[in-house]
Amino acid sequence: MTTQSKVTLFIGILFLLLTTLNTVLSAEINPSFQRAEILAGISSVIIMLLAFLSDGKKLQVSQNKFANSQQGLFLSEHLTGTTRYELAWGSQLLLTATPAATILIYWDDEVLLRRGLIRDTKFTPGITCLNAQNQQKLISLGHSKFYPNRLEFDSILENLPAIIIYPLINRGWLILGGSTENCFSKSDQKWIIGWSARLTEELITVN
Length: 207
What we know:
alpha+beta
């Protein structure tokens, strides 16, 4: 669910709770008061429904946008058993716990993993990846269509609405593509940073 949808849902729930609390605390309940409370409750439910409908509409648009892409999993044949396991469960975690539609991991001039919606095209790190590496911090492109260098990520998936680039020290990157614009929250970024640190330790150990 997008941040906007979550906020809308929260407002609907808050209004419903306040309506219920008002009913409980009222000393006198007459027909006019009951009608007002019913209308307030219905309005709260409608607000919550709009949150789910809005989120569903954005998801449908995203699915249509990537209709020509295929779900897949690519793992480098050079990986050891423990590293393959780490990449497999960690990438699955990010694809299910965040709005990511695709994930790519690049280490020592090699793509180690592609998962989610993928393309069979060569990926070459560009200026955005290098900036993330030089700054050693996460770069989030919430509205990538306004970013002049977004084409460097088309080899992962064309026209990604949102992109996160996180450096794996000075040896690679973790790149995620979001299904809708501005879909990654601060909580999502913490998941990404946390697992990236664990993954980096694993890759350093075996390489």
